[in-house]
Design goal:
five-stranded parallel beta sheet, globular, 443 residues, alpha/beta
Length: 443
């Protein structure tokens, strides 16, 4: 007679915010799946719903609260985790029926709350999970979180109060995770943290043995080792500390993608000082020039804040002139938004909303022009492209070059590419370009 297995509870997940939150969600789901829980793609089929919140900006908090409200309305059994967990009283005041509220990267608390809300029938056959864990990204790329928290105290940011000071993972644990991800099909590892350059500072760069040799808990050592594991390794959230210069030769050698995501935030010294960030913009320009001499194909992306309290028209013009000289490859911008608990809220001379909008539009117009000019130079070249989507019916495909991170940068649109598969890394002849994307055909 066949054994009748009990049906395991199903868990739904709503994951908001940045890639670091996404990694937290993956870890939570991996642990729950290893405990035997099934995943539900919708509210109706879930025995309990997890909402992983973002609390970086007030607009993000409101989006998180709306998501919690929707989950309660559609399902009724909701556990809240993530950055807004610091504001449990606010959440419970608005949604008294939530089952539990936990903070960012409190994995054990979240899993424990799920066990309480939807107990697992004891059965050894239900505890199944792939060794690489469960993923919320496509199979061919994965985010790899190397640390939690941040030691900076930027005036506009409340991340340290949400996630605490820097806590680095052991290098051997990171490399072991990277190997499992690649074995499961990952072609591109996207290294993330709050401050990738500071990796290992808190543990004094203590080395660990990995495959018979020691690897320091240091960004350079880690990047070199990861380059030997995955075809593509992309570095995000890199502060321009001096030792970043040592990573550029690894890019020139092909071990790491020639791509740096550096959150400059501004260029004006007075604004950077008010933001509590290093104000050495001239030296940064020299270093970018030096990086391009070592690795001509390096792509530098950054984000900037316009309308920070006290920002004058002269400050903004200085930023525009700096961007013209820096010729960054990819630029994102944000209008300053007060965040509850941020020191910047107490600064004098707030910038009127209409001026913020006008400056934002000018900056985006400038950076779009620079991007169009830089992409036009790539027409006629042959580039490596990783394929993200294929439309066999039309024969088209969409991918990304080494200069493009998923969801935040541009794309490469291909014709005559219906024979390709998602995850392929192929040579593409570039035929055309616009302000953000490239167009080509498999070479």
């Amino acid at each position: 007679m066949a054994t009748q297995l009990p049906l395991p509870p199903k868990v739904g997940m709503v994951s908001l915010g940045c890639p670091k939150n996404l990694v937290d969600s993956e870890r939570i789901l991996t642990k729950l799946r290893s405990d035997g829980y099934q995943m539900s793609p919708d509210y109706a089929g879930a025995d309990v719903v997890l909402v992983n919140t973002c609390g970086f900006l007030d607009s993000a908090k409101e989006e998180s609260l709306e998501a919690i409200g929707e989950a309660i309305a559609e399902n009724g059994r909701v556990i809240v985790t993530g950055c807004m967990g610091k504001e449990a009283e606010t959440i419970r005041a608005r949604f008294p029926d939530v089952l539990a509220v936990t903070g960012a990267h409190q994995y054990e608390d979240v899993v424990g709350a799920v066990h309480d809300a939807a107990p697992m029938p004891p059965n050894a056959f239900l505890n199944l999970v792939p060794e690489s864990g469960l993923k919320l990204t496509p199979r061919h790329y994965s985010y790899l979180k190397i640390s939690e928290g941040c030691n900076h105290r930027c005036a506009f940011c409340i991340i340290p109060s949400l996630r605490g000071d820097l806590v680095s993972r052991r290098p051997d644990a990171i490399l072991r995770e990277a190997e499992k991800l690649v074995e499961a099909g990952t072609k591109e590892l996207l290294v993330i943290s709050q401050d990738t350059s500071a990796y290992g500072v808190d543990i004094k760069h203590h080395p660990r043995t990995w495959h018979g040799h020691e690897v320091r808990a240091h960004m350079t050592d880690l990047a070199r080792e990861l380059g030997g594991i995955a075809p593509w390794v992309r570095l995000h959230y890199v502060y321009p500390y001096p030792h970043v210069d040592h990573v550029i030769p690894l890019m020139a050698e092909g071990l790491v993608l020639p791509y740096l995501d550096i959150p400059f935030q501004h260029a004006s010294r007075s604004v950077l000082k008010a933001m509590r960030r290093p104000a050495n913009e001239a030296k940064v320009l020299e270093r970018i020039k030096g990086w391009r001499e070592i690795c001509p194909d390096i792509a530098v992306r950054s984000t900037f804040v316009v309308g920070f309290p006290g920002e004058t028209e002269d400050d903004f013009r200085y930023l525009m002139d700096w961007l013209e000289e820096a010729q960054l490859d990819r630029v994102g911008a944000f209008r300053f938004e007060p965040v509850e608990g941020a020191a910047a809220n107490a600064l004098p001379d707030p910038v009127p909303e209409e001026i913020k909008e006008e400056r934002y539009a000018r900056l985006m117009e400038l950076t779009a022009r620079i991007s169009a000019e830089k992409l036009a130079v790539k027409v006629g070249r042959t580039l490596d492209v990783i394929i993200d989507a294929v439309d066999a019916e039309s024969g088209g495909a969409t991918g990304r070059s080494e200069a493009d991170a998923p969801e935040i940068d541009g794309e490469v649109h291909l014709r005559d590419a219906g024979h390709l598969a998602v995850g392929d890394i192929v040579r593409v002849a570039i035929e055309d370009a616009d302000a953000h994307d490239l167009f080509g055909v498999p070479a």
